[in-house]
Write a structure and sequence with these properties.
It contains 5 helices and 3 strands, in the order αβαββααα. The protein is α+β, with helices and mostly antiparallel strands. It has 2 domains: 70 residues, no CATH class; 55 residues, no CATH class. Strands 1-3-2 form a 3-stranded antiparallel sheet.
Length: 148
């Protein structure tokens, strides 16, 4: 969660015209794009969305510390539109639940969770080969009791 918040703050700073001071790897490993913040920055740099304003060698770590910024106004606008689209598309789905949570509206929160459970749970969730260890009927009974 803290890493996600850090990425969000870094992105906000870039969109406001600020700079990032980070290490950047010259090698991009695509398998790490969803897990490694450094890989994402490296991809943005090599694809032209970020530029290096300054570079300093960090003697303690033995790595170069890059001062990164968005390349131009067009890239800034593109990122703003992309981020706005992410939140308008998915934000409305979660807004009702978050609003209910903030207002301590347990009934609405329960209704939201029930809709989500109905849309995602199935009898296949009990496993392919039921055994005494997994007790798949407990999953089903718990789901049915939640609906009562």
């Amino acid at each position: 969660m803290a890493r996600t918040a850090g990425i969000k703050i870094s992105m906000e700073n870039l969109l406001k015209g600020g700079h990032l001071y980070k290490e950047v790897s010259e090698q991009i490993i695509f398998d790490q794009l969803d897990a490694d913040e450094n890989a994402i920055r490296s991809l943005f740099l090599t694809s032209g969305y970020l530029k290096v304003e300054n570079c300093e060698f960090n003697e303690d770590t033995g790595a170069d510390l890059h001062e990164l910024a968005l390349t131009n106004k067009e890239v800034q606008i593109m990122f703003q539109k992309m981020i706005r689209k992410w939140f308008t598309r998915s934000g409305t789905v979660y807004n009702c639940f978050i609003r209910a949570l903030l207002q301590d509206d347990v009934k609405s929160m329960n209704a939201y969770i029930n809709r989500a459970a109905l849309a995602t749970f199935s009898y296949f969730d009990s496993g392919k080969n039921p055994s005494m260890e997994t007790q798949p009927e407990r999953f089903y009974h718990g789901f049915v009791l939640e609906r009562v």
